[in-house]
Amino acid sequence: MVNAIVLIQAAADSIPEAAQAIADIDGVTEVYSCAGEVDLIALVRVAQHEDLADLVPGRISKVPGVLNTDTHIAFRSYSRRQAEAAFAIGLDDD
């Protein structure tokens, strides 16, 4: 699986509609509206890198109101729960 984070700039008057349209696209797992330099952040999960080429420029960028995208491919995932589980290996619950 390939995980990616897509930073999206959108026209201010179409953010809610663009966010919902993006969320409805297969391969998009979550969409967040946010403050800052980008208007929306989409979390994407696809089977292969080539699928990103179809998804981002082929679908997300064509959603009405989307002005620009910036895609970041995730190499590795880290979380507090994963770290705690790794350090707990071999410890008995007493």
Q: Could you explain how this protein is built, in words?
A:
It holds the Pfam family AsnC_trans_reg. This is Lrp/AsnC family transcriptional regulator. This protein has 94 residues and is an alpha+beta fold. It has one domain (2-87): Lrp/AsnC effector binding domain/regulation of amino acid metabolism (RAM) domain (Alpha-Beta Plaits, 2-Layer Sandwich). The protein has 3 helices and 4 strands; from the N terminus they run βαββαβα. A 4-stranded antiparallel sheet has the order 2-3-1-4. Strand 2 (28-33) and strand 3 (40-46) form a beta hairpin. The radius of gyration is 17 Å and the shape is globular. The termini are far apart.
- What is the CATH H-level superfamily? Lrp/AsnC effector binding domain/regulation of amino acid metabolism (RAM) domain
Structural category: alpha+beta
Identify the CATH architecture: 2-Layer Sandwich
**Overall geometric form:** globular
Rounded mean pLDDT is 90
